[in-house]
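A reminder before we start the practical. When you read a complex entry, don't treat the lines as separate problems. The point of joint prediction is that each chain is placed relative to the others, so the output describes one connected object in space. Small molecules and nucleic acid strands, if listed, are placed in the same frame. In the example below there are four entries. Take a minute to note the order of the lines before looking further.
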Amino acid sequence: MKDERGDGMTDETSSSADGESGTSAVPFSRYAGTYLALVLLATGSLVLSRLHLGGLSVALLIAAAKAILVLWFFMHLSTQSASSRLAVLAAVVMIGTLVALTALDVETRHTFPAHTQPPPSSGFYERSSR
Amino acid sequence: MTMSEVIAAPERGGDGAAATGDVPPDYLRAASGVRSWLTTTDHKRIALMFYVVVLVMFMVGGLFALALRVELLTPRRTVMDAMTYNRMFTLHGVTMVWMFLIPAIPAVFGNFILPMQLGAKDLAFPRLNLASFYVYVSGLLITLGGMLAGGTDTGWTFYTPYSDSSPTRLLPVVSGVFVLGISTIMTGINFIATTHMLRAPGITWRRIPLFTWTIYGTSIIMVLATPVLGLALALVGVDHVLHLGIFDPAVGGDPVLFQHLFWFYSHPAVYIMILPAMGVISEVVPTFAQRRPSSYMAIAMSTLGIALVGFLTWGHHMFVAGISELDAGIFGALSMFVAVFSALKVFTWVATLYKGRIRLGTPLLYFFGFLFLFVFGGMTGVAVATQSLDIHWHDTYFVVAHFHFVMVGGSVTAFLAAAHYWFPKMFGRRYSERVGALSATAVFLGFVLTFFPQFLLGNMGMPRRYYSYPERFQWLHVLSTGGAFLLAGAIVLALGNLLVSLRWGPKAGSNPWGSRSFEWLSASPPPKNNFPAVPVLDFSPYDYTQSEEEAHARAFPR
Amino acid sequence: MNQLMRKLLFLPPQASSMAGEIDALHYVVILTTLLGAALTTAVAVFFVVKYRARGPEAERPREKPAPRPPVWFEVVVVVGLFGLFVLWWIVGFSQYVRARVAPPDTLDVYVTAKQWMWKFAYPDGHSSLGTLFVPQGRPVKLIMTSRDVIHSFYVPDFRAKQDVIPGRYTTIWFTATIEGAHQILCAEYCGTGHSTMRGQVVALAPADYARWVGQAAAQDLSSFPDAGGAATGAPSMARVGERVAADRGCLRCHTVDGTPHIGPTWAGLYGSSVPLADGQAVLADEPYLTESMMDPLAKVRRGFRPVMPSYQGLLQAPEAAAVVEFIKSLRDVPPAAAGPMPPPTGPLPSQPVTP
Amino acid sequence: MPAPSHAEQYSGYPRLAETLRFGMWIFLASETLLFAGLFALYASYRAMFRADFTQAIQHNTLAYGTVNMYVLLTSSFTVALSLATLRRNRPRVTLALLLATAALGGVFLVVKALEYAEHVRNGALPGPFYHWQALPTFGANRFFTMYWLMTGLHALHVMAGVVVVLWLARRTHRRRYTAARHATFEMGTLYWHLVDVMWLFLWPILYLA
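Here is the predicted structure of the whole assembly.
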């Protein structure tokens, strides 16, 4: 079966806006709104940590929300081609893999203690308790 | 700029229509003088410059290997002392991994062939391409400087805490490899951008030739894994100089964490070395069988599979390093998963020979060498990933034999196959098939004689990186050393054959192998902009139901 | 069959309990590998010979594209292969866990790896350099640490290997089944003398081992540097540990008969679950006891004030091992109501009380 | 602006701009992987010394970190605005915003220097140089070693970002960019945003929880 002739340009390349004119219509208010949201989230995260609520997981969730805001609006990921979003996704997945599997190793060490005791020669305690 | 405008104005590019007889000069004669080479942004010339430097580094690494093999002839001292031997195996590792295997196929054949297979005039960022060559050369010089200053003896893995306390000069070698990593990232960015953005009209993702698919998969690994190597080496370098105790157990650090960071890069790095080799084989087999690959999607998707799942399996290098059993179990399972993709490719290649019209040629002979060595080497990889067996095999010559089977038996054999397969396209000449066939057979025999005894050494329990060894291992080492010299001679013969044919080889037409892949649509050697006009490639690169003339007519409509 | 395959593959003798089953899996995996490679190449050669381009017909383009194997065939091959690999993983992982986690009642020997030598400290007080004497047929657990860089304790005959990491304890266990000497090699690169860092595991029959233990104990124990006056016959490691504990002031806070005092009592401590100040509980095994001596603030027992000074640098590894043995010897002394004690009477240790 | 020599392989400037942006996004993905290694080390050492880490975080200089957080958020806002005003062809405002961004970057570095000075006074130095009496534990040693590595690498990236922003300012001053042709300008702003996103994640794990 012969391949059909002349189907148009590849899907990605024609989807993006035609050059620069498309993105200039972004109103200033959107930038200001994003900035305000970021500051509010930062302050919220600070207050939560001062009240010792939620701990690391909540703080990281808020940080992720702020990161998505910056990526989507300030860095215009919304108007980028699907390939750029793929790049961001791949980076996030790889970081998650490295952190997760490394920390899992340390977390589940049973046959021997997870963390180290310095050999006698290190003299660590003399220095720090001087 | 809609589709129709592009087709309507092919001549705008000022290349002159091929039909009017003033054939554009090929890229070799397009400009002359050393400056035109050193400041070129033509991906083909940069590929040739990479070719020369990569081959030189291959020879340097090979000399280190021969020195090691001579030393291992006798259980005690033969020609050098322990410290020299330890530096020699480190330099053999660093040279072969970062200066030859990783750049070899992507930077030489990827640079030359990828834009042509996509129908593009050049890579997305030609100046970045030239910059990556100079960064590569400067990385080389820094590392060679480190070698002359005595090099280091930590092995190419730089494990802490020995790399912190090693008396040798570690910093130059580590910073040289860091710079080589930067060059790898630059090349990776270039290839991904070109594959996404610069495909000729008509090429959808299902019509990209398979070699370009593997270079695209390799570039994903290059871009995502190399930074972690950069960080790991930077930490080791800083630790060696400033003693910040990052992994130092005396202040609570854990040396196993460095191994996590290092192998997070180094396992995908072995896929950087083997994926392009698979790409070359995926081009050679359909051409010599004169038929389409038995399953295009199998090879394309397993390339992406290897590129992505390859990131999840680094723990199988650390089964006995002191990681927890649960973590080791997870890594073991994921390692089995990634092995299936390689096996799928092997079956697809063999199935591609079915009902083909097979012509014999040197690249096909290299394919046979590749097939047996890669399948046997790859399967021993699955064996080493089986956890209880790895306890006995880890850090012995069994592992050395495994990765040489895959790296030398796989990547180097495919590198030689690519060198012969694309030789007519790159230089417009043919090499002598007889000498080619002889050297291919000699490479295979030399290889098996060198590395098969090392499997047995590993089973007997001979550890890696041993300067002196118990007497019972000696006769296998003598066998292996003999094989090493035969292998070295065979490789020199193969490359010598190509070198000679550069000058005295008969003229080659634009498509000596009768392949339908897109790079063969242009002249050999191709003009500066690869094709007389922007080709319309809306047909499969493995469509042997149309003749070459039909394909040419479809690609360059009047 | 087993011996034939072992000799064919150049494998060393199977001298440990695990070696036999590991080699069985080895034969299955290696045979499949050889078969797979040979079969694939044979099919390829057959296709090349059968479908060589012959005659002018080969030059004309094909009428219809070449046939593709049916999808079900590809699926079967992939799933079948994946199943085989997962099967290997299942067997391999179960053997791996059994090879890593020691059985309960093992003879514990402390191993210290130092740049280019192995040092063994036995529970009954004496130590040896380079040669490890073990009873045949009884599981032996090695508790290993390194003084400088990463080494790797590797005995090919036992199919056993474990990296020895500085600043941490890693364990390896085996049951020697064949008497005689089995070579120890270092498998992780550790410097110039990496290839000369060899030793021997000597497996003795139980009778010989008993006689060896008696005979070694009668020797002068000067080889045990910090044992102090070893005049009264052959002190076992526990007795040495008791003297070290007395000399270093451990017994000023820790009692041995279960009565409460400043620190938790050692009676019945070994193997019990210790409730910690931060709510968790930890098993009192060698690593916990050694860690509590070197870094007492890491895991403070609930109900006790964190006043214990660190013995870091004051206790050498053999002495620490001796004290641990002494604590283990009090394993079955019934602990009385070991609650916190009334306010201290004697002088508190010098370190200021942290909040 | 003279079309670069390889322009003829692109069907027009918009296509070249899109490719440059895509290339930049790949570079940003690669750059974040550099920090992934440090996040993995931090997570592992935190898993080892859980209590010591929470204790060390409470002893860390929260004020400096929070000020730096707001500084970088504002700088991200100003650099985003500079791109918007460039697209509205108001180069003078763009220049002002770029200089403001660079200034904020400078403020960040000054605050960071003060913070480092305080840590040095406390003795909270990495590895064997650590001698802070208040926290004599291993976990604190590990925390401050990771603290110095992560904030040090991030500070290097902030310096590089300031250089990039100043380079953009110089070319804006020379009217190199127009509303239709400013791909390299956008690439510079993307790099600065990356520096901000990095601190978004460093701030909680080093100062908050």
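Discuss with your neighbour: Chain D touches chain C at residues 51, 136-138 (CB under 8 Å). What might explain this?
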